[in-house]
Amino acid sequence: MRVTVAGAHGQVALLLNRRLTDAGHDVVGLVRNPAHLDEVEASGARGVVCDLESASSEDVGAAVDGSDAVVFAAGSGPGSGPARKDAMDRAGAELLARAAGSAGASRYVLVSSMGVETVRDSAPPSAGAEDVFTSYLRAKLASEDAVRATDLAWTVLRPGRLTDGPGTGQVTLAGRVEDGAVPREDVAAVLVALLDEPRTSGKVLELVAGATPVDAAVAATVRD
Ligand SMILES: NC(=O)c1ccc[n+]([C@@H]2O[C@H](COP(=O)([O-])OP(=O)(O)OC[C@H]3O[C@@H](n4cnc5c(N)ncnc54)[C@H](OP(=O)(O)O)[C@@H]3O)[C@@H](O)[C@H]2O)c1
Questions:
Q1: 52 lines ligand 1 (CB under 6 A)
Q2: Is the CB of 51 under 6 A from ligand 1?
Q3: Tens-digit pLDDT profile for residues 43-57
Q4: 195, part of any domain
Q5: What is the pTM of this model?
Q6: pLDDT tens-digit profile of 131-177?
Q7: Would residue 12 count as lying in a domain?
Q8: What gap in Å lies between CA 172 and CA 153, rounded to an integer?
Q9: In a domain, 198, yes or no
Q10: Would you tell me the crossing angle of helices 214-223 and 184-195 to the nearest 10 degrees?
Q11: CATH number of domain containing 29
Q12: Of all atoms in ligand 1, which is nearest to the CA of residue 163?
């Protein structure tokens, strides 16, 4: 299938592009910075420049046109403040989801984050009164709520703290898991398995390192 990966030059995304390509999928990688096109193409994807904070709906629609599935793996990253948490992590994800729906993509996987439930019922802050991590969680939660409100066959994946260690191929994956970390390589493996299992549509899944092989962990979520 054709999979469009947003944030395709990100650390998880580069691993994901390679895994999807190796599995025989046609991967389109959306990048913010044209200087990253070569590296994204070296990971197996066809690179397309698309800045989710400045592109129009039409531009994003054209970028995802023809996709069977879309993955949001972008992020404002460390060093950004509350304004970019809102512009990228919330609004960028919402823009991509709307474009995916309009383009008729049948699957949408949102990389969110563990911890978002901690801000669900907290009162909106007064201006400037919130730390950046809380702004990030609030933006991620809003992006989840927006995706859930679409007609897309969506899956939300909430990884714990990402690490760069080698993947183990073994994870803990469920609706709620204890806080923990997970290698980016294993996040990429889980994303591929979620795309391969449409019955994970409509599920919100938390992910940390664990002891269950990825395919078995994904299969268990559809038996629950
Ligand atoms: N770090 C953690 O511990 C953690 C935990 C849970 C979930 N997450 C989430 O997991 C996902 C993947 O994380 P990661 O570490 O792979 O992220 P990353 O390496 O920071 O990559 C994020 C990518 O998003 C791109 N991006 C930024 N602004 C953009 C825009 N306006 N339009 C299009 N692309 C844009 C960046 O582009 P440039 O290369 O041009 O900067 C970068 O390639 C993110 O959604 C993150 O929030 C992270």
A1: yes
A2: yes
A3: 999 999 999 999 999
A4: no
A5: 0.97
A6: 899 999 999 999 999 999 999 999 999 999 999 989 999 999 999 99
A7: yes
A8: 23
A9: no
A10: 50
A11: 3.40.50.720
A12: 3
